[in-house]
Write a structure and sequence with these properties.
Strand order of the largest sheet: 9-8-7-10-11-12-13
CATH class of the largest domain: Alpha Beta
Oligomer: single chain
Radius of gyration: 22 Å
Distance between the termini: 19 Å
CATH architecture of the largest domain: 3-Layer(aba) Sandwich
CATH topology of the largest domain: Rossmann fold
Number of strands: 13
């Protein structure tokens, strides 16, 4: 998920509260929110009845002092994607006992080692957006081959621009990471008539058979033999920087790379360096850092399609995401654990 909320906003009060006068109850705080999540969270406040007071801040801020102040008396914090480095966690650890993270990649937003040291439980969400992210990966592949978005912009600008397009059917799609999202991408790609080559530490043989996929012996094999490579690994100590210049150099001219997972899977500078040669294309929904600075060199590459980390933000995914995080918060308040990773 992304840590910015630059979009038109429905009309919400600055703060939404439930049972504010019940000072005998612990406090659940949402310190920042985006409009689509605010509405969904507000609809589920009844689930906290008798368990906790709830306070939702409906604006967005990256200011650490403001965030610390908003969370200062909370027992549970529901995170919609703000950054929580060790220094911020240390400031709130006197009261905060649990953070529920609205996504799967908590490691990219929360210092998990600091949370563990400070005794703060961290819960994430699982499989809430498998289909949304998988469809976005396919959409990036279509943009790289059919150029619908760029052709639309050019046509709206005037004239009747001609262009050649390519097809995905019959090409080899290499999938790195075969969890929920990777398997969904494989099913969609199989329906398009693509051949599947999959690398995963423990690939599900039944899932491979269902898409007539073949297991690759190594990541290097995927990059060498695929027309399109799509990344679907979780980010952790073992996978950070797992793809470097050596792997990207194996991509043949005309091939494509798609990343809807985490930018940090690729070694710093490796993607920009490979794209600068001009013989491959890429589509990414994730960058490091996020938001991507306006002067970042990636923005200047004509063979790169960038979307601002929105693959997870479909209506269905948001509803499932908010639902899981409300359940994680209420479970913690009852003395239970749901989707706890720390």
């Amino acid at each position: 998920m992304s840590d910015t909320a630059e979009e038109p906003r429905p009309s919400f009060p600055p703060v939404i509260e439930r049972d504010a006068d019940r000072t005998d109850l612990p406090l659940v705080v949402v310190p920042v929110s985006i409009p689509s999540m605010t509405a969904l969270l507000a609809d589920r406040l009844d689930e906290f009845a008798g368990l906790a007071r709830v306070r939702i801040h409906t604006d967005w801020t990256d200011d650490e002092d403001a965030l610390a102040a908003r969370m200062s008396d909370a027992t549970v914090v529901m995170s919609t994607g703000f950054r929580a480095p060790a220094r911020l966690l240390e400031r709130i650890a006197g009261s905060v006992r649990c953070i529920t993270f609205c996504g799967t990649g908590a490691v990219s937003f929360i210092d998990l080692e600091a949370a563990r040291r400070l005794g703060i439980t961290v819960c994430n969400a699982v499989h809430y957006g498998d289909n949304a992210v998988a469809e976005h990966a396919i959409a990036l592949m279509f943009e790289l081959t059919h150029h619908v978005g760029s052709l639309n912009a050019r046509t709206h600008a005037g004239g009747w621009p001609g262009a050649d397009i390519d097809e995905l059917g019959g090409r080899t799609l290499g999938i790195i990471g075969f969890g929920g999202i990777g398997r969904r991408v494989a099913r969609l790609a199989h329906g398009l008539g693509m051949r599947l080559l999959v690398w995963d530490r423990h690939p599900d043989p039944d899932a491979l058979t269902a898409v007539q996929g073949r297991a690759a012996a190594s990541i290097d094999e995927v990059f060498a033999q695929s027309d399109v490579v799509s990344l679907h690994l979780a980010l952790n100590d073992d996978t950070q920087g797992i793809i470097g210049a050596a792997q990207l150099d194996r991509m043949h001219p005309g091939s494509m790379l798609v990343n809807t997972a985490r930018a940090e899977l690729i070694a710093p500078g490796a993607l920009a360096g490979r794209l600068s040669r001009g013989d491959i294309t890429a589509g990414i929904d994730v960058t490091a850092p996020e938001p991507l600075p306006d002067d970042d060199p990636l923005r200047t590459l004509p063979n790169l399609v960038i979307t601002p980390h929105v693959a997870w933000r479909s209506g269905n995914a948001l509803r499932a995401l908010v639902g899981q995080n409300v359940r994680s918060a209420t479970a913690f308040l009852r003395g239970e654990r749901l989707n706890a990773i720390v």
